[in-house]
Specification:
alpha+beta; HTH-like; AraC-bd; eight-stranded antiparallel beta sheet; 8 strands
């Protein structure tokens, strides 16, 4: 299915070009690549993808992201090889994919393949009954699709980012409850029955930060709430409530994250009420 593309759609950061599927995908060889970005998801059988000098097998529960103008080939190994696909582009698509760590042609294992298939079905339904806002709506669905590839996708059969965050869930909940006091790395390790070093590895894999950095972000978020809920409270009192004994250190961290001091933050936000 092909959408009607006006100048409005072509100005969007990301927009749909084509959507479809095959009960059995035949061999496809593109020595010069394809003009748009592609997401192809396997629904049955097994096949291969050849790209960047590598050949990878791909079956149900997996999908492949292909970048524009990159030579590639894919085809069946076990028939019928069912495929559903969407092609897309836009003037900010490259930046979006880069920010989501989806910056090269890859095969992904999907922790929850039904989620991405649901997005494809939603776009199909939108294209069946087109109206002037269909381009905007499908653009939003493509972005949600990419977010879920980021969330549920993994380049190996190991845990996806979503699974990594699920493993950390007891630790994150613990931090939310006890952010107002010192939390030792050993406490977090005990919750997961792993070493303190492995806790740091899990945080880096799932969130891209160290445990202490994540705790700081929780504390600053709580501080922002307290600053506005209690406009007459001194910064020193707020600092203590979120776990910082020394107000000067709290102010330094707050400014690093927010770009302004707690007093300036309160003044700006309360003046808008």
């Amino acid at each position: 299915m092909f959408p009607i593309l006006t100048d409005l759609e072509r100005r969007l950061p990301i927009y749909l070009n084509n959507l479809g599927g095959w009960i059995h995908q035949d061999l496809m060889e593109r020595p010069h690549g394809f003009a748009e970005y592609q997401w192809l998801q396997v629904t049955s059988g097994r096949g291969f993808l050849r790209v960047q000098g590598r050949e990878m097998t791909i079956g149900p529960g997996q999908g492949m992201l292909l970048l524009p103008n990159e030579p590639h080939a894919y085809g069946p190994l076990e028939a019928p090889w069912g495929i559903k696909w969407v092609t897309f582009t836009g003037n900010r698509t490259a930046e979006m994919l880069q920010d989501l760590d989806l910056h090269c042609s890859e095969v992904f294992y999907l922790g929850n393949p039904d989620v991405s298939l649901k997005h494809l079905q939603e776009m199909y339904s939108l294209l069946q009954s087109p109206h002037p806002t269909t381009g905007l709506e499908t653009s939003a669905v493509i972005y949600r699709l990419l977010l879920d590839i980021y969330r549920y996708g993994s380049r190996t059969e190991l845990r996806s980012r979503k699974h990594q965050m699920d493993v950390l869930s007891p630790v994150l909940d613990y931090m939310e409850l006890h952010y107002d006091r010192t939390i030792a790395l050993a406490e977090l390790a005990e919750l997961l029955k792993v070493s303190p070093q492995h806790v740091c590895v899990l945080f880096q894999q799932a969130l891209g930060v160290r445990p202490i950095e994540y705790l700081t972000r929780i504390r600053i978020r709580k501080a922002k709430e307290l600053l506005l809920l209690h406009p007459d409270a001194e910064v020193k009192a707020v600092s203590t409530q979120v776990g910082y004994e020394h107000p000067s250190y709290f102010i330094k961290l707050f400014k690093q994250q927010e770009g302004l001091t707690p007093v300036m933050f309160r003044r700006i936000h309360l003046s808008r009420l």
